[in-house]
Design goal:
The structure is a homodimer. The first copy, chain A, is an alpha/beta fold. The first copy, chain A, has 16 helices and 12 strands. Helix content of chain A is about 45%, strand content about 15%. In chain A, helix 9 packs across helix 14 and helix 13 runs parallel beside helix 15.
Chain lengths: ~375, ~375
């Protein structure tokens, strides 16, 4: 019986994680769950899964929630609440599914306790990869990817030697704008950007998929997770999202992991590893699928992907700046404040304007994140764009 | 430095094995090679690879060959010669690439010596699977598949648990007659049947690919190699032959092994396992490939595949009868003596006419093979067809 601390239980990954837990009541129990502000869903989850602790990040809702659940579950709140459960609660697996930079600090607390980290929060590795990998080694924490692409690579590497990797091939659906011309990026709407062809996900990651920044963040995540340089990471557009990613070995043999898209699969694997649990929620019928296609990604059109490759190669706090500027830009796009095409422009400006620090410590990363958010929030597009 | 005994050095697999050995002169040396009757190529191979022994199966050519090579290489001949090198010569790996039933006896000698068996001769497992697997266990011999499909499954299973296999999916190119209607099977020519779209192979296996008997034999081979029943073996048509086969696990995750088709890859893997040796002979470019497609195999059209599934389920000597009748039928087709559509008919007649023996010993298998060949050789298509 494995105890799970689920950070971000009301998001898409969180809900799917609880769907997996529901299927395996003899394998997993939920020790604590956390949500940003969705009291209604959090309450339902508390009533169904009976965690000992729950965190509502929005402090104004703590009292209301504690009254609703009564004594059976202790309610904490705020960022301190997240840190507190991660630091003191009893668990075997930390499933880190917070959105964005906010996932970093609590995930690090789980790492320091040497727990298994099932990582859906890619920003943890994007902004602090070097530091996080070092901490995992130091504290003997096991890092298991939940992203379908990284789970695919992880699975393809089971029993293989890291030294024999020639390259990894991250597949990308290409998102809703795969066949939209670059010129139209000035006029695409929020609704169009949120209409992902294959995956049903939260709004931040769906916009990142539309800009291909999501693939860019995944490139940086893969760089740290599998210890691979730029020359060993390729991206290929695969609109069907059936091949979740591939590894090519030094002998030219390629291994891939496949299935119809369903996040429950990589979530379950990160929980059950090294075992696989019998589960029939997916039926992959290749005859019905019929055809798998592949295209070169257009880095001139999807500038965010190119920016991510560049930030990865630059290293230091460049990925942190990239990520923070992107979070603000996506937020502004979702609010209708900027055009879709301004997302990469805002990121470029931030990277050009903010100092890069090599091998940053955690404090420097937090400072860089704050500084970038401040820069991007205040930034006005003028004649220079 | 691994010593190789290469049974069948002048065939397609044999030549490709020597291509691999040529690339890794510090890893492999050739201890002995064998050929049916191609003295010219065998002589070239002796001169290049300097084996201590060579076998020419055609006894009439032994003296000529011994004179040509002089004292540097001992020439043996006949089936006894094959048995003799396998029994007494010094080697680490037996690469078994003889064509058809003839591969069984010498392969068993290698197994009895507890060697690594790199198995290209699928008939060894088709006709004597139960016995061969038992012998491998008893003598601690390592059985590594060389067929691209089985190598793919073997690679997909590295580090995974056999108990967690839900099914394997053998891919099949569909051969030259994928889009030929069943009615035309009466009139297709030998040249058409020998024109395989993806693989350059010997004539026997190429005809088997055209009839899909090759896939049928592979199904039976996989049944023994991976210890899986009928309900766990699927076949899907994949005309590009890029995905060499797949394994679906109990959690619905699928792993595949891929590359542009080149037999050097699975051969090299069977030699280098558990390591992978750096080799650049293949470049798999998914963008250039563009599309991978999948179709249901038509078992009504490709009757040989259905017959193989049936023989596997019947067990005993049924696969031996299937194989022997097929060898004779293919030979007759290649000689222009029977129509392509008569191949499955001849096999059906043999299976219906010859007694099946359950759990046969080696002697029973040899006797069944002889009896079937005799039956099929004499068989005349009359009104009953």
């Amino acid at each position: 019986m494995k105890k799970i601390l689920l950070l971000g239980s009301t998001g898409s990954i969180g809900v799917n994680t609880l769907n997996v837990v529901r299927e395996f009541p003899d394998e997993f129990e939920v020790e604590a769950i956390t949500a940003n502000s969705n009291v209604g869903l959090l309450l339902d989850q508390i009533n169904e899964f009976n965690p000992k602790f729950a965190v509502i990040r929005d402090k104004s809702k703590k009292a209301e929630l504690q009254e609703l659940v009564g004594a059976k579950c202790k309610i904490l709140s705020g960022d301190e609440g997240l840190i507190e459960v991660t630091k003191y609660c009893e668990y075997d697996i930390l499933l880190s599914a917070l959105v964005g930079f906010a996932g970093l600090a609590p995930t690090i607390e789980g790492i320091k306790r040497g727990k298994r980290i099932a990582l859906a929060n890619k920003e943890t590795l994007v902004v602090a990869g070097e530091l996080v990998i070092d901490l995992c080694k130091k504290h003997n924490a096991e890092l298991l990817p939940v992203d379908s692409e990284h789970s695919a690579i992880f699975q393809a590497l089971i029993g293989e030697s890291q030294k024999e990797i020639r390259r990894i091939i991250l597949t990308a659906s290409g998102g809703p704008f795969l066949n939209t011309s670059k010129d139209e990026f000035d006029s695409v709407t929020v609704e169009q950007a949120l209409d992902h062809p294959n995956w049903s996900m939260g709004s931040k990651i769906t916009i990142d998929s539309a800009s291909m920044m999501n693939k860019g963040l995944e490139v940086i995540e893969a760089h740290w997770l599998f210890n691979l340089g730029r020359d060993k990471i390729d991206v290929v557009i695969h609109p069907q999202s059936i091949i979740h990613s591939m590894v090519e070995f030094c002998d030219s043999s390629i291994k891939a992991q496949l299935s119809v898209p369903d996040m429950k699969l990589p979530i379950q694997y990160a929980l059950s590893y090294p075992n696989r649990f019998t589960s029939n929620f997916i039926q992959t019928d290749f005859v019905k699928i019929g055809s798998l296609t592949f295209f070169e990604p257009d880095l001139n059109k999807f500038k965010c992907l190119q920016l991510a490759f560049d930030a990865m190669q630059e290293g230091g706090t460049a990925p942190c700046i990239l990520n923070a500027a992107n979070e603000i830009a996506v937020d502004k796009f979702l609010k209708g404040e900027i055009k879709f095409s301004y997302i990469p422009k805002m990121i470029s400006h931030a990277i050009e304007s903010i100092n890069n620090h090599k091998s940053p410590d955690l404090e420097t990363i937090f400072e860089c994140d704050r500084q970038t958010r401040d820069f991007a929030t205040k930034f006005k597009f003028g004649e220079e764009v």
